[in-house]
Amino acid sequence: MTVREIGARLQRREISCVELVRSTIQAIESGDRSNSLITRTFEQALQQAAKLDAEPRRGPFHGIPIAHKDLFYTRGVRTTGGSLIYKDFVPEFDADVVAKLNVAGAISIGKANLHELAYGIRCNNAHYGAVLNPLDPERIPGGSSGGSAALVAAGFLAMATGTDSGGSIRIPASYCGIAGFKPTYDVLSRRGILPLNYSLDHAGPMGTCVDDCALAMNAMSGTTAFDLPPLADLKTVRVGVPDAFFFERVHPEVERAVKASLTASGARIETVRLPDFNELNAAARVIQMAEATALYINYSDASLFGADVWTNIQDGRQIFGHEYVNAQRLRRVHRKVLRQIWKTVDVIATPTTAITAPLRNEVTIDINGRDEDVRLASTRLVRGWNYLGEPAISIPCGKDSKGLPIGLQLIAAPYRDARLLQIAKLFERQA
Amino acid sequence: MMEEEVPLPPPTETVKRLWEAFRPAAARLTADDDIAASFEPEIEEE
């Protein structure tokens, strides 16, 4: 059920907050096969629900059970980052977005599992156990916000928080068949979120649908700016489709579903020429590696890290200072190109991921007879938007022949977050 | 925290591929290209 549907039941008093939280807890305890939570805060959730039952309704999130990716500080509740380094870390304050969701009446039932330190897409966490895709436990949920996505996709929650530094909200949204929104850089506060990359990190919502994300953005920002009135249709919306890169080395079933969704939308489709995303992704990766390594360079004990995260941190030591600075300079060059493109289209549409959810043991995957690295197939269409800062959302737009969800990514100009969500709702409806 | 320095490993294939993609782009930067005043994306509100 969506946030609005649950809210309506609460408002009609068909169910109390306590009953709702209790049924959510029971469903997770008996049905979570994905190892979605690192820490459960069920007792606190029931206490909070009882308090909210005695209060006037605060708004759409009043009494709605949610979970926070275990990267968000939660006062008095340990925040591990999926890492041994923070295994006993108990913050003394809430992250800003956590505090705002509390004020809105949301009830946290726990801290969601993730790829260690948010530095990866598999969620094969070496310390707290792997997160499994609830649609097929042999497959990865995507990451790093995999626990959040699994909780929503399994139907336990309507919304969970995530973070996205190189696709970490949109990749699991694509692989689990839910909506995941990365707002414009800096629109949501990062205070009280364990960092991975200072200049690429974004907080955002993951929900059953676009409307859940829009309502969550209101709550997470403490505004009402993100829930615009619905559009009648997409006839006047200009959708840019990149002429290169975004439909190359993409699985044919993914390409077909995304293009069918664009055709069915009724929007004005226009071809756009973007900057070279091979270069742009490389620059984003230079920044990511340098910034992440800066955070963890002082740790010399490899046993504190999963093997992949340790390798990533050591790889970052190969990035020279001048390369990091030039990667930041290139950012300005690419932004100038994007500014021109946003004068001609309202949104850009691409697949979110080049493939559907891969098997847990797959390292490479066949796309059109060519082996592709699973990490690159997962990140190459999403990473650049963290570097540029544009708002971007992933929504389901169909299924492949295995019945796995396919993600459509829609991107808009900076600070057009509300407009993007408004347009995405119509794409979602026709899908 | 750091007790002993970990020797710098040789570049992995990942790093080599990254250099291959990134260095030509960086080499095209000129002194005319703006140097970001901050390391944040500098997004203008329209």
Write the layout of secondary structure elements.
The complex is a heterodimer of chains A (431) and B (46).
Chain A: H1 3-11, H2 17-31, E1 37-40, H3 42-53, E2 65-69, H4 96-103, E3 107-112, E4 124-125, E5 129-130, H5 146-153, E6 159-164, H6 170-176, E7 179-182, E8 202-207, H7 210-221, E9 238-242, H8 252-265, E10 268-272, H9 277-296, H10 307-316, H11 321-341, E11 347-351, E12 364-367, E13 370-373, H12 374-379, H13 383-388, E14 392-399, E15 405-412, H14 417-430
Parallel strand pairs in A: 2-3, 2-6, 9-10, 9-11
Antiparallel strand pairs in A: 1-3, 4-5, 6-8, 7-8, 7-14, 11-15, 12-13, 14-15
Chain B: H1 13-27
Shape of chain A: globular
Main sheet specs of chain B: none
Overall SS class of chain A: alpha/beta
Terminal CA distance of chain B: 45 Å
Query: So what's the oligomer here?
Result: heterodimer
Low-confidence stretches of chain B: none
Helical amount of chain B: 25-40%
Give the mean pLDDT of chain A: 97
Number of strands of chain A: 15
Give me the number of helical elements of chain A: 14
Return the structural class of chain B: mainly alpha
Give the overall shape of chain B, derived from the CA principal axes. elongated
The largest sheet of chain A, given as strand count, sense and whether it forms a barrel, is:
11 strands, mixed
Largest binding interface between chains: A-B, 43 and 32 residues
Report the end-to-end length of chain A measured between terminal Cα atoms: 18 Å
Quick recap:
The complex is a heterodimer of chains A (431) and B (46). With 431 residues, chain A is of the alpha/beta class. Chain A has 14 helices and 15 strands.
Detailed description of the structure:
- In chain A, helix 7 runs antiparallel to helix 14, helix 9 crosses helix 10 and helix 9 packs across helix 11.
- The model of chain A has no long low-confidence stretch (mean pLDDT 97).
- Chain A is of the alpha/beta class.
- In chain A, the strands form 3 sheets. In chain A, strands 1-3-2-6-8-7-14-15-11-9-10 form an 11-stranded mixed sheet, with helices on both faces. A two-stranded antiparallel ribbon of chain A has the order 4-5. In chain A, strands 12-13 form a two-stranded antiparallel sheet.
- Chain A is built from 14 helices and 15 strands.
- Chain B is 33% helix and 0% strand.
- Chain B is elongated and about 45 Å long.
- The chains are: A alpha/beta (431), B mainly alpha (46).
